[in-house]
Amino acid sequence: MKKIFLFVITIVATNLSSAQSKAGVKIGYIDMDYILENVPDYKEAATQLEQKAQKWKQDIEVKKNDISKLKEGLKNEKALLTKELIEEREGEIKFLEAELLDYQQKRFGPRGDLAIQKESIIKPVQDQVFNAVQDIAEAKQYDFIFDKSSDLTMLFSAKRFDISDQIVRVITRAEKREELSNKKRKALEEKQEKQDEIADNPGLAERQRLLDEKKALRNKVIEDRRNSAAQKKREYEEKRKKLLEERAGKKTGTTIDSTSSKQPVIDTQLENFNKVENKKIALDSIKKAREAARLKTIEDNKKAFEARKKALEEKKKKVQEEREAAAKKAKETKTN
């Protein structure tokens, strides 16, 4: 490692000495660990892998506990077991221990599942970083770009030479562009599939044509209504403006030219007219409210009258029944 470091320093020194008459050597560095922590795709994949690793560790602990229980059971029962049973138990324990060791190597060994999957998720990001470094180096004319997290020892590195954030931005933008392209491609594929489906099914094509015609007709009706309403509004405004101009002309004894500079007067008259109209509307609202209250009072009185009438009829009926009962009783008494 020291030889590599000395070799790099020698190259840098050589370039510095040869570039004294020029602009100088431009050096930058990246921090791969920092970049990996800030790339969303890698973080998500690393989190999922960590969850798998935790599950594997739990499986190992379960196997260890099972082996420990078997050993403890053999220790407690050894005095009661025959030699053959003891050997059988010991063989079973050794088999489980070997199986556990194989499982540990399979999951966490140098070429285990964890190492392989970690390499599989880190390699695409490393490729993206390499491409981004190449692009930035060419665009900004860097002579050297080092990796701070590699085996190369960097005794000091000024923050202004760190281009890790630039790398993260380049990768993130590329992912967003790719995602947008995928969305557009998916939309295009869906549109093409729909067109193919319509082309293969004449009945569906006819139904789609009718739907399109109906939609176009509905849009035309809505547009015509909107235009008609706008035209009526313009006519109303012109009519009201003309009326105000005539009133103003009669009051001043002059004829108001539409092109004359009497707009402030017209605006004032228009405002007064609006106030009168608003007042009329308010009076109409009050009148309607009073009429509604009067009708409600009449209705309430009518209901009260009906209730009293019903109560009187019931009372009258009850008195009549009592009289008839008394007469009947008196008649029965007289007969006896």
TrEMBL record:
One of its GO terms (cellular component) is cytosol. Residues 39-106 form a coiled coil. The keyword Signal applies. Residues 252-262 have a biased composition (Polar residues). Residues 181-197 have a biased composition (Basic and acidic residues). It comes from the Bacteria. GO terms for molecular function: unfolded protein binding. Pfam families: OmpH (PF03938). One of its GO terms (biological process) is protein stabilization. Keywords: Coiled coil, Signal. Residues 181-205, 243-262, 312-336 are annotated as: Disordered. The keyword Coiled coil applies. Belongs to the Skp family. This is Periplasmic chaperone for outer membrane proteins Skp.
